[in-house]
Amino acid sequence: MEPSFRGRKNYATQNVMAAVDFDLRFTYVLAGWEGTTHDALVLRDALTRANGLRVPQGKFYLVDAGYGAKPGFIPPFHSVRYHLNEWGSNPVQNEKELFNLRHSSLRVTVERAFGSLKRRFKILDDATPFFPYPTQVDIVVACCIIHNWVINDGIDEYIIPEDEWVPNITHASTSSGQAQEHALTTAFMEELADQMWEDRLNYMQQQNM
To answer: Which of 11, 89, 126, 185 can bridge 69 by disulfide, Cβ–Cβ 3.0-4.6 Å?
Structure first.
């Protein structure tokens, strides 16, 4: 097995990229990339495939920092508080912190979906892979399909309630991607953050009147 598949483990790993809706269903899954592959490269592959990932007109995907800022994909601001358990009783101090807080509050849905998937199918999380690698890739996709089928029938004991979810606190490294796209998307993010901050200040002012 090539070293690129091993990553930090002594057995084969794969980088799985998925899009999740707010009902915890997987709307797109790309499995099979080597475990050490950077997230931005996997995303680029998904976007260039004939039947790959598409961003609906006027919509955006919330992504973690590893995917970088590009049209249709909004990461959090780098080097700014992000995960919910980093806030404690300390209120937001500026527009970028408010943006990251709201980003994290929404994107935790992705972590809940993956957490529920691994709880439902232990083969994805607990066991050292013993199937041929192509079969491992097929297993990931099949598990996501079955997960969606179960979700369509209602929530079950494998779905972690939102108020009980403990988010992953690891930080992914950022990737600028294409410089121009990164700059445009970052500028858009800053406009959103400024508007959020202005709306918050107006709301607080009205509450104090």
So the answer is: 185
